[in-house]
Design goal:
The chain has 15 helices and 12 strands. It is of the alpha/beta class. The strands form 3 sheets. It has a 7-stranded mixed β-sheet, with helices on one face. Strands 5-7-6 form a 3-stranded mixed β-sheet.
Length: about 425
């Protein structure tokens, strides 16, 4: 049977060579990215295998769920701790990473980088879900975060037969496996193959698989490349129609197929984005509608309660008591205002001119003024309040001379009172 290879660097060819004897096998793909483009798992999926995809980027996680509905998709980053991490999605690539320095390098090279907050799960928690079955291969391609994934392995008993890890700096041939390889070999793995991008390890529990590794992908692996892999021809045929041969036809067909794949992937990506946006709009509208319905129910319940109260027998029976209570409160408030001459109240406004006119009348008549003064001396508080009220009414004092033709027409006592009042007014004006 001819294998169709979709992987970026023929990883699926090498894994298939070692594991093709397994029927309906199982895999875990950490950093799965697209379900088709540069997919390590698609060749196995087409041959009856099923597995688990761990993908932190929400966009690619949705593509995986849509393309592989019969597989598990864990939308999270794998690491050593549980919580949330900052993840940097690199648009239209599989270069998304949790490493800020790598993301900044991608951005400096002209790529579009979008920071996200994503869930992070300890890798042990993921492995433990499937520890009761054989895991035939595990791929870890997390753009510089490989060591964090291995650190998160913890005490899980799961031991995949073959482990593949990207072992170079992202988008660089420089290898960077020195820090994490000892941790992996301590878990019971032996290095068997390097393909220029990835390092392959075999579990010490399956030494029989080591013989399958050594040479790179070749004629005897009986595979063909999908039009989606980077090695497919993109060039236009240069020969004339007369010189065309079957190889050129295949090149043209491969180019067209690859373009078709890209257009379909782009359309699928846009459809997924649109679906997510529509779902969010629907969710918001549903939440708003629910809030409006809840508010209407609460309002209706309040109105129903009020209507029940107004129609109740107790409400009708107590109506006279409420009316009496309102009337008593109204009477007491206004009576208190009259008794205390509350500032700004109508009683005060009515009483003030009456008192002023009365004072004018009394002060203009010494025989009445003398006994009133003696009486007020016994009530200093009232005396003070009257004086303040009288002094604050200049219109009264302006009319004082009208008590006679002139000040000289007043009695000696009246002139003395007039003088005292004038001095009090002048003193008050200076103080103000």
């Amino acid at each position: 049977m001819t294998l169709v290879s979709y992987a970026q660097n023929f990883e699926d060819v090498i894994l298939w060579r070692a594991l093709k004897h397994v029927e309906n096998g199982f895999y875990i793909d950490v950093g799965a990215q697209d379900p088709v483009f540069e997919s390590v798992s698609l060749a196995f999926y087409e041959n009856g295998w099923r597995g688990v995809h761990v993908e932190a980027d929400p966009h690619y996680a949705e593509l995986l769920r849509e393309a592989r509905p019969d597989e598990d998709v864990i939308e999270a980053a794998a690491g050593s701790d549980e919580g949330e991490i900052e993840f940097f999605s690199v648009t239209d690539t599989g270069l998304g990473t949790g490493d800020k320095d790598i993301a900044q390098r991608h951005e400096a090279e002209g790529r579009t980088v979008k920071p996200l907050r994503v869930r992070c799960l300890p890798f042990q928690q993921i492995l433990d879900r499937y520890a009761d079955r054989d895991i035939h291969w595990l791929k870890i391609d997390v753009e510089g975060m490989e060591e964090a994934v291995i650190d998160g392995w913890g005490t899980s008993p799961a031991r995949p037969w073959v482990v593949v890890l990207e072992s170079t700096i992202p988008n660089s041939p420089v290898q960077n496996y020195a820090s994490w390889e000892p941790k992996l070999t301590a878990l019971g793995y032996e290095f068997v193959y390097f393909d220029g991008l990835n390092r392959f390890y075999v579990s010490v529990a399956h030494p029989e698989l080591k013989a399958a590794f050594g040479p790179g992908p070749n004629f005897f692996d009986n595979f063909v490349m999908s039009a989606t892999v980077p090695f497919s021809c993109e060039g236009e045929p240069k020969k004339s129609d007369e010189d065309a041969d079957p190889v050129d036809d295949r090149s043209v067909r491969t180019t067209l197929e690859r373009r078709l794949f890209r257009e379909q992937a782009s359309r699928r990506s846009l459809e997924v984005d649109l679906k997510i946006a529509n779902e969010e709009i629907t969710r918001i509208k549903s939440a708003q509608q629910q809030q409006m319905e809840e508010a209407a129910k609460i309002n209706a319940a309040h109105l129903e309660q009020m209507d029940a109260i107004y129609k109740s027998t107790s409400w009708r029976i107590t109506a006279p008591l409420r009316a009496l209570s309102y009337a008593a409160r109204w009477f007491l408030q206004r009576s208190w205002a009259w008794l205390t001459l509350k500032p700004g109240s109508r009683p005060r406004r009515v009483a003030k001119p009456i008192l002023v006119k009365s004072a004018r009348y009394v002060l203009a008549r010494p025989k009445l003024a003398r006994p009133l003064k003696r009486a007020l001396q016994r009530m200093p508080v009232l005396d003070k309040r009257l004086r303040v009220m009288i002094v604050s009414t200049p219109s009264f004092f302006a009319s004082l001379p009208s008590a006679g033709n002139s000040i000289e027409d007043l009695s000696p006592r009246g002139r003395a009172i007039h003088r005292q009042l004038s001095e009090a007014i002048e003193k008050r004006r200076r103080e103000s």
